[in-house]
Amino acid sequence: MLREGIFTLKVAVPVNNLDKNRVVLVSVIVNRLLKQLSNIKASAHGYFLAVTRLHSIGQEDTNFSSQHVLFPVDFCCRTFIPMQGEVMTGIVRSVQHNGIFLKCGPMNIVYLSAQLMPDFHYVSGENLYKRDDASKIENGVVVRFMIYAVRWIEDMWRDFRVLATLKGDGLGPVTLNGLDGLDL
């Protein structure tokens, strides 16, 4: 689900970016903000996609360190947060006997358990899942799935762990005629 939220982040600006009057350009602060957000990647509020509006830049805090000055920045940001029950499309990255790993947008790890794929069975010699109607799920195939469960993990990867299912109408492998090299 896409959301728009207002966030506050303390942006560290190197002292050498200040002019002789200790003034810093707004563009320098915005560039540092974007750099910090790209390092954060995600939070419990979702994956940071885009800064849509800059609300305010607060007074500088020089007590942080002798090499950096902190500026509190209020900004509007568009985030993506996976929600239980949401139907999404992902591309198969890895097929294993107990399930499939998908990539979907900023989510690099979406797990689709074999137990949550009704009517599909694993074909070990070919390393794929097959259904009686000859539908196949293998590496590189686009799959429409529903989010079964989501958990935010605050570890070194700062990522959402998503468990997917194919239980439901219209879920499973998707035929994309003529779309070679699709990267979801």
TrEMBL record:
GO terms for biological process: DNA-templated transcription initiation. InterPro entries: NA-bd_OB-fold (IPR012340), RNA_pol_Rpb7-like_N_sf (IPR036898), Rpb7-like (IPR045113). Keywords: DNA-directed RNA polymerase, Nucleus, Transcription. It is found in: Nucleus. GO terms for molecular function: single-stranded DNA binding; single-stranded RNA binding. GO terms for cellular component: DNA-directed RNA polymerase complex; nucleus. DNA-dependent RNA polymerase which catalyzes the transcription of DNA into RNA using the four ribonucleoside triphosphates as substrates. This is DNA-directed RNA polymerase subunit. It comes from Dorcoceras hygrometricum.
